Amino acid sequence: MSRPSPSLREWWIAVGVSAAIVALTSLPYLYGFASEPSGYHFTGLLINPYDGNSYLAKMEIGRRGGWLFHLPFTAEPGTGVPLYFLYIFLGHAAAWVGAPSILIFHMARALAGLVLLLTLFAFVARFFEMPGARWAAWLVIALGSGFGWLAVPFGGFTSDLWVAEAIVFLSIFANPHFPLSIALTLALYLLLIPGFGPPRINWRQALGIVLAATATAHLQPFASVTIGGVTAVTYAAHYYLKRDAVKRDHVARFVVFALASLPWLIYDFWLSQTHPQLKVWSAQNQTPSPPAWDYLITFGLPLLLAIPGAWHAFRRRTETDVFLLAWLVTNAILLYAPFALQRRLSLGLSIPIGVLAAQGLVFGIVPWVEGRAASRAYQALLRIVRAPGTLRIGLFVAMCLP
Fold this sequence. Notes:
Helix content is 69%, strand content 0%. The chain is mostly helical and 402 residues long.
């Protein structure tokens, strides 16, 4: 399904807004450094400092000239292995320019955030012809979160406040590898899913799949599992709904993705079972999913708006609609699969919810309001939703942001 591409002016605005969002995520860190009390040292980490310090320790391996990872927080680090290349490379970069590791960490975080936001803009544009609708979807995904802030006074601490990989804004705030992994995930979907690209695969697309799949499998192996599952379900649903024969092009795309991903996934699993130190570390690395009610609060109003959006997508059933529903359903199942690292599979889950939420607004709520515009209250709301795109976006974003 072809959609009009954003204009050059839209792209420049997206670049400016993306830079502003990334700058916004940096303000708390700048405040931390500026308000550091005498005799104390601000580490430059605000969310999940335990993991954050492990990233800096990996960078230290590179700063000291190493390229192989070993566990730094143990008396027996074991033999080095080719893992965590991103942070080891950043450590080398810090040594090359003579900068503090934390500065390079945040520069990489900002750059990865820009890459994610612009990739997200390209991704969202595939779903909406109206500029106002795609801007609303993009801003809600980029800035939105859930109702967790309302639960804090009652002792609640839901996932939208700390599970950074699930929420786009929080992932940009946390580290470089979450936003980069989400950007790679979106790029792979644009290359793999019917309706996003040319009907026949060419060598450039195949090369793009190989590079993105290899990088994803190394950077965030769990994302490869989700991408493979969502793509397979999308293909199966496409064939079932269209009563179509299996297309060689789809098989070719999936095979290229699998051949690029599986070697790294198998190698990672083999290391976790055979490397003495990594085996012990893997045994204690448990990240189960929170209960389902936690996710309902985590995704908040966008999830509620996604209900009419999902119904519209189910009735319309275009290739991209089928993909969105497949992503949401497959990911929801994977979050509770019998697997010790369930929560890691929530990477980027706010994205399909945000797109469906925007569809719910554009194709569900606005037509419903227009059909009931007789009363003065409905007339007032109708004037808002018929207002210029900027005002409409502002209303939608204000509704969805915490």
